[in-house]
Amino acid sequence: MFFNEHPTSAAHKLTYSPSPGRSMTIKHSNPNGTVHGGVPISLLDYTLDGTTEQVLASSADGGLATARQHTITISLTTQFSGGARHGLPLFGRAWVQRRTRSIAFVAGEPTSGDLTVATASAIFKTPRQPGA
């Protein structure tokens, strides 16, 4: 679920746990004993894309995308800065930095406790509606 911090903000949050009420477990580990990097990357892709769709659909100018229109990931770049901790949920936050008529530039970060696990930037394309 997305939780809008401020109704006019482009920042949204998503918390990931493997199952309701649970945190990361050894099952999600890499050989270093931290949560496998694929978990925060998946969270980032989902969070950044969902934020983009929600922000575009609810923008003050009537939206560049409709609530049912999905964006396409052109690029997702991730820089890791630490390992997600077991026993804590992974929290994703994203915001739209800039947008054009058909492209959105988005940034985000997952955190585990007080640790920023990574930073990411993405570019999303808003496909044209048929007949538009």
Description:
With 132 residues, this protein is an alpha+beta fold. It has one domain (3-125): Thiol Ester Dehydrase, Chain A, CATH 3.10.129. The chain contains one helix and seven strands, in the order E-E-H-E-E-E-E-E. The protein has one helix spanning 38-57, and strands at 3-4, 11-16, 72-80, 90-99, 103-112, 115-116, 118-125. Strands 1, 2, 3, 4, 5, 6 and 7 form a seven-stranded antiparallel beta sheet that branches. The chain is elongated.
Can you tell me the number of structural domains?
Answer: 1
What's the alpha carbon Rg, rounded to whole Å?
16 Å
CATH class: Alpha Beta
Q: Which fold name corresponds to the CATH topology? A: Thiol Ester Dehydrase, Chain A
Low-confidence stretches: 1-11
What's the helix-strand series?
EEHEEEEE
Main sheet: strands, sense, barrel: 7 strands, antiparallel
CATH superfamily, called what? Hotdog Thioesterase
Number of helices: 1
Tell me the helix content: 10-25%
CATH architecture: Roll
What distance lies between the first and last C-alpha atoms, to the nearest angstrom?
30 Å
Structural class: alpha+beta
Shape: elongated
What do the pLDDT scores average to? 75
Total beta-strand segments: 7
Beta-strand percent range: 35-45%
Overview in brief:
The protein has one helix at residues 38-57; strands at 3-4, 11-16, 72-80, 90-99, 103-112, 115-116, 118-125.
